[in-house]
From TrEMBL:
Gene3D superfamilies: FomD-like (2.40.380.10). It comes from Streptomyces glaucosporus. Residues 74-193 form the DUF402 domain. This is DUF402 domain-containing protein. The lineage of its organism: Bacteria, Bacillati, Actinomycetota, Actinomycetes, Kitasatosporales. InterPro entries: DUF402, FomD-like_sf, Ntdp-like. SUPFAM superfamilies: FomD-like (SSF159234). Keywords: Hydrolase.
Length: 227
């Protein structure tokens, strides 16, 4: 990882990385300040306008689950955000994911493929604008998402989780309205078929020489203690 001074000014400022470098893409827990999702990724492109990273198949990541070991998606929605949780290590067994984040935008766009590099869809993940630090980027997920398909149709995803997060007190109404407004702006981008949808990223392929990034022991370190 590049040794840089911490700068939490969003994707437009802070450290810069070269293609092929390994960084961490992390999410803080909603309603908390600890990291509960961490994914080692390889930098594809890093400019003042765009950060693109690749999460390779087989990457060891950190994800949350309930304290009794129940996967989150198997817990009824009514109690999914109120029961105690823990973090566990697990491998990303699906095909890889290309993640694109434009500077200052409250969402990132993920690209998914099926086996054989058959493009499946884009996925707009509504979240806090990425904040850079020496070891990677941090954000907070906002539950609400948008799936975008190759024929340019789209649909909202996880609206039930977004509503339940509000009921569970994980965001107040002001924040919820900011998320809804961000979603509406993302939809405008989709309807206009603006970047990154028009940019041909679905034809991108990773460098076969790239190694799968390792998950460091201090994956949850505070940016202030970054190297």
């Amino acid at each position: 990882m590049t040794a840089q001074t911490e700068d939490n000014t969003g994707t437009a400022g802070g450290p810069r990385w070269s293609a092929g470098e390994h960084i961490l893409w992390r999410y803080r827990a909603n309603g908390g300040d600890h990291v509960h999702i961490c994914r080692p990724v390889t930098v594809v492109r890093d400019t003042p306008e765009l950060l693109a990273v690749w999460m390779a198949p087989g990457t060891t990541c950190v994800r949350p689950e309930l304290a009794d070991g129940t996967p989150l998606h198997r817990e009824p929605l009514a109690t999914r955000y109120t029961k105690p949780r823990r973090t566990v290590r697990s491998r990303w067994f699906g095909t890889g994911v290309l993640k694109l984040a434009r500077a200052g935008e409250p969402w990132s766009v993920w690209l998914f493929w099926d086996r054989g590099w058959r493009f499946r869809n884009w996925y707009v993940n509504l979240e806090e604008p990425l904040r850079r630090w020496a070891g990677g980027v941090d954000s907070e997920d906002h539950f609400l998402d948008i799936a975008v398909y190759p024929d340019r149709t789209w649909e909202w995803k996880d609206e039930d989780e977004f509503a339940q997060a509000r009921r569970a007190g994980l965001m107040d109404e002001d924040q919820a309205e900011r998320v809804r407004a961000a979603g509406r702006r993302a939809v405008e981008t989709i309807r206009a078929w603006a970047s990154p949808f028009r940019d041909g990223w679905e034809h991108w392929r990773p460098d076969p020489a790239w190694a799968v990034p390792a998950l460091p022991e201090d994956w949850d370190r505070e940016p202030a203690r970054a190297e």
